[in-house]
C-alpha cells in the first residue's frame, strides 16, 4: 500500500500540461437512489450485530432526499464536496436468529426494519495532464457513510415487542485515477474515476461516471452512475468483523455553472 500511495502522490505533484482549460464553480441538486445488499457481522463489539440486509430484513428502496454538491473545476486541480441521504424499509419473517445492537430476534419472527444511509464526500483531483478537451488526474479524498439500522419484532412465544437501533460509520479514502472531457464549446462535460483501497485483506472499490449537458450556458442537467463495494473478511481487520456491502445505482441532477 505504501509504494502505491507514494506513486500517486508523486504523480499528483507533477506540473500540469495546460492548454486553456476553463475554470468554473458548480452547484448542484441531485437525486441518487442506489440499491443496497450485503451483511454486517461484528460480534465482539459493545453493540454486536449479525444481520443480512436482504435475506434477513428484506430491505428495499424507500425514499431519496435531495442531495447537494459544490465543486470547483480548474486548470490544475478540482475540489468537490457532496452530501446525500437514502432510506430503505423492509418487513420479513426471518428464518434464523439475528442480532441488531445486541438485541436478538429469534427465527420465525416478523421483523420490520429501516435503514438510513447518509453520505458525505470530499474529493480533491490533481490534474496531471490537462488539454483543451481532455484531462487525466489523480483523486485524493475521503467519503464517510453513516448507516443507521432500526428493527422491531414480536419475539415468540411470549409475543413481547423487541426494538433495536444500530449506528455505524464506514469511512473510505478516495484514491485512484480519474479522466474527463469537454465538448460542444463546454456544453457537454464528462468524468469517470475508479477509487480503490486494499488493506490487510479488506478492499474498497468505487467506480463512477458523470455526464453533464448545458442547454443554457449556466444551467445544466446531470446524469451519473455510482457503485461501491466494501469487503472486510472475518479476521482481516478484526477477528470478529465481517462486512460485505454493495451499493449501486444511477442518479439525476440539476447543475448551475458560474
Strand line-up of the largest beta sheet: 2-5-6-9-10-11-12-13-14-15
User: Helices and strands: which structural class?
Assistant: mainly beta
Distance between the termini: 39 Å
Number of helices: 1
Low-confidence stretches: 1-18
Element-level helix/strand string: HEEEEEEEEEEEEEEE
Could you name the key traits of this structure?
258 residues, mainly beta, 10-stranded antiparallel β-barrel, two-stranded antiparallel sheet
Task: Draw up the topology in text.
Blueprint: H1 2-12, E1 17-18, E2 24-32, E3 35-42, E4 49-52, E5 60-73, E6 77-93, E7 98-100, E8 103-105, E9 110-130, E10 134-155, E11 160-183, E12 188-199, E13 202-216, E14 219-232, E15 241-257
Parallel strand pairs: 1-9
Antiparallel strand pairs: 2-5, 2-15, 3-4, 3-15, 5-6, 6-9, 7-8, 9-10, 10-11, 11-12, 12-13, 13-14, 14-15
Structural description of this entry:
By secondary structure, this protein is mainly beta. It has one domain. The relative contact order is 0.19. It contains one helix and 15 strands. The strands form two sheets. The chain has a ten-stranded antiparallel barrel with strand order 2-5-6-9-10-11-12-13-14-15. The chain has a two-stranded antiparallel ribbon with strand order 7-8. Strand 11 and strand 12 (about 190-200) form a beta hairpin. Mean pLDDT is about 90; it is low at about 1-20. It is about 5% helix and about 70% strand. The chain has one helix spanning about 1-10, and strands at about 15-20, 25-30, 35-40, 50, 60-75, 75-95, 100, 105, 110-130, 135-155, 160-185, 190-200, 200-215, 220-230, 240-255.
